[in-house]
Specification:
296 residues; alpha/beta; 23% strand
Length: 296
C-alpha cells in the first residue's frame, strides 16, 4: 500500500489525467508475429492487383488474404472529417489545392477522376471492416513533426466510439502532443511511442542504461514501439559483418522488458521479413502482406 503514491507520480510525469475513459482492448491479443498490412497493400503488390494503396480496395485485399492488422494514416479535412491518406500533399490538384488539410471531404471525393483513385473516409473503413484490428496514425499538416491538427484526437476517438471499434485499434503519431492528448482521453487502448519517446528509448538502449535512469521513456501502460527497419551489413574479405542494426534480439528484448510491443516498418524483402521474425518482433509492417504471411 505504501507504494501507491508511485501511480499518480508516473501519471504526472507523462502528463496523464486521472479521469480518462477506460477501454478493454483485444488488440493487445493479436497473433504474434502479426502481419500488419501497410496501407492495405502498397507499391508492387498494389499495382499487380490493380488498386491504389490506402483505398477500400487495398484494405479488402489485405483482409481477403488474412492480414492480421490493417494500417492507415488519417488527416483532418476542413469540414472536420478524417481522410485516409499517407501524405497531406496530393499527387495532383484537387479543386485548386494540393493538400488535404485545405480541402473538405466532399471536395476530396469529387476529385476521384483527377487523382485516379478515391480517398476513403476513416468512417467508411471502420464500417466496412467491423472488429478488424487496425493501427491508425494521426498525421500532421504537411507531415510535419512540429505541427498538428487541432482537435484530431477527440475527433478520432468519437469515430472509434461511434463505430464500436475502441477495443480493436492502436493509435499513434510522430507528434508528441497528439499522442499525449489522445492518451489523456482514454486508457487501455494501445498507443504508439511518439518520435521523441522513440529517440529516448533508442538512446537508453544504446547506452545500456537501467530503466530507472531512462527519462522520457514511458511505461506502465500498453505502448507500441513501431521501429524503422534499419540493418546494415558490410562484406570484407569475403566475411559478412553487421555494422549497425536495430533488428536484433537485444533490442526487442529490451522493449519487451518495458512491456512494449515491437513492430518493424516498412519491411518488404523476404530476407528482411525473416530477420524481423527471427529476433522475436511482435509484428512486421509490410507493403507486401501476402509474402509476409507466407514466411511466418
Amino acid at each position: 500500500m505504501k507504494k501507491l503514491w508511485i501511480i499518480p507520480l508516473v501519471m504526472m510525469t507523462f502528463g496523464l489525467q486521472a479521469d480518462r475513459i477506460s477501454v478493454t482492448s483485444v488488440y493487445w491479443n493479436t497473433i504474434k508475429p502479426a502481419v500488419v498490412a501497410h496501407r492495405g497493400a502498397a507499391d508492387q503488390e498494389a499495382r499487380t492487383n490493380g488498386f491504389h494503396e490506402g483505398t477500400i480496395a487495398a484494405y479488402r485485399y489485405a483482409a481477403s488474404i488474412g492480414a492480421d492488422v490493417l494500417e492507415m494514416d488519417v488527416h483532418k479535412t476542413t469540414d472536420n472529417r478524417l481522410a485516409v491518406h499517407h501524405d497531406d500533399r496530393l499527387p495532383g490538384l484537387c479543386n485548386g489545392q494540393d493538400k488535404i488539410h485545405n480541402l473538405s471531404l466532399t471536395q476530396l471525393k469529387a476529385c476521384k477522376g483527377s487523382l485516379g483513385y478515391e480517398i476513403p473516409e476513416l468512417r467508411e473503413i471502420l464500417r466496412t471492416f467491423p472488429r478488424y484490428r487496425m493501427t491508425i496514425e494521426m498525421k500532421t499538416p504537411d507531415n510535419s513533426l512540429f505541427k498538428s491538427y487541432s482537435g484530431i484526437e477527440a475527433l478520432l476517438w468519437s469515430e472509434l466510439v461511434a463505430a464500436n471499434m475502441t477495443g480493436y485499434v492502436s493509435v499513434s503519431s510522430i507528434n508528441g502532443s497528439c499522442v499525449k492528448n489522445f492518451r489523456n482521453i482514454v486508457k487501455g487502448l494501445p498507443t504508439g511511442l511518439s518520435a521523441g519517446e522513440q529517440i529516448s528509448f533508442l538512446l537508453c538502449h544504446m547506452a545500456r542504461l537501467p530503466q530507472w535512469a531512462c527519462a522520457g521513456v514511458p511505461r506502465g501502460e500498453r505502448f507500441m514501439l513501431e521501429t524503422p527497419y534499419f540493418h546494415k551489413d558490410l562484406t570484407l574479405l569475403g566475411v559478412n559483418f553487421t555494422v549497425i542494426s536495430l533488428v536484433t534480439t537485444s533490442f526487442t528484448n529490451r522493449a519487451h522488458n518495458y512491456d512494449y510491443r515491437v513492430n518493424y516498418w516498412t519491411v518488404n524483402a523476404a530476407a528482411d521479413i525473416q530477420r524481423v521474425y527471427s529476433v522475436g518482433a511482435d509484428g512486421v509492417i509490410s507493403d507486401n502482406p501476402r509474402l509476409s504471411m507466407s514466411l511466418r
